[in-house]
Amino acid sequence: MEDLIAEHIVVDGMNVIGSRPDGWWRDRDGAARRLLAKLQRLAAATGDKVTLVLDGRPLADVAEGLHDGVQVVYARRAGRDAGDDRLVELVAHLPEPERVRAITSDRALAARVRDLGATVAGAGGFLELLESY
Predict the structure, then answer these.
(1) Is the pTM of this model over 0.90?
(2) What domain range includes position 25?
(3) What is the mean pLDDT of residues 2-31?
(4) What string of H, E and C letters represents the secondary structure of the chain?
(5) CATH code for position 108
(6) Confidence of residue 56 (pLDDT cuts 50, 70, 90)
(7) How confident is the model at residue 1 (pLDDT cuts 50, 70, 90)?
(8) How many domains is the chain built from?
(9) What pairing do the DSSP bridges indicate for beta strands 65-67 and 70-74?
């Protein structure tokens, strides 16, 4: 699983959260906070830069910005593919997108970030990796 780690990991938050039917839909905000906590442990253990991209309204207690080693960003608009567009925008503006590993199981999003030079890992395998941190 260690091959899922890169120098900059960009996570499609809702895709990762939604990849496991663990009842996350009953507490979407709590699921986002739990994923952030797992990503913070990963960032602390690996030293990699980690960015979490979330859809929907910003969490009241998690503003856009750096949170214990994890950069949190939100979709700039509501609607279909808003988070995907934000993730692509982010990767496109990075100086070395080839050093990015995007985490998503969304095939269309994966193709878009691969076109920018990033690599992609699926949500399920990434969640398994997170359990070891």
Answers:
(1) yes
(2) 2-130
(3) 86
(4) CHHHCCCEEEEEHHHHHCCCCCCHHHCHHHHHHHHHHHHHHHHHHHCCEEEEEECCCCECCECCEEECCEEEEECCCCCCCHHHHHHHHHHHCCCCHHHEEEECCCHHHHHHHHHCCCEEECHHHHHHHHCCC
(5) 3.40.50.20
(6) confident
(7) very low
(8) 1
(9) antiparallel
